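Example record

One chain of 190 residues, shown exactly as stored in the release files.
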Amino acid sequence: MSQIGFYFDQTRCTGCNTCSVACKDWYNIDAGPVNLMRVKVIERGKFPDLFAAHLICPCYHCSDPACVKACPAQAITRRDSDGIVVVDHEKCIGTEECPERCLKACPYDAPQFGPEADAKMVKCDLCLGRLTEGKKPICVEACPMMAIDVGPLDELKTKHAGSQEAEGFKYSKTCKPSVVFKPKTCTLKD
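Predicted structure tokens for this chain:
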């Protein structure tokens, strides 16, 4: 099995949110709280000594996903073939019966629930349909700065020689997120 994961170049991202908008558009997600791809803003310092960076916050398709263990309906699974974490919406029991255990278990807040009554969990599935057609996820294709890539994690690590840490991101040794970063380093002194 070749674990599929994300590469994110934090030095290239300008925080334009094109990845997030493209994702919402592709999946026809209404304006509102559900964002399968979020962009976090990290700001430090005081004028004139400032630092700013951005961090993509999708599902990182962990090698040992806490959400899978937390789901009482076994609606969340990790595919053996590529490690992509998927949700079976038919099995998900929704917010009326489940106290959103998957969201509480995930250190990255990847599971999302809409505002509607008895909302089912949704999250990034790495555009699985596009991947099976040999295409890149919509966030990768949409990024004007070419800051995002998706592929086999071993290949991403070799190609980009990155890090497991980035500004605003803490690697979980428990969940083992499938992501490689080129971090933007803050040079400000605390």
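Notes: Strands lie at 4-9, 38-46, 49-57, 76-78, 85-87, 112-113, 121-122, 148-152, 179-182.
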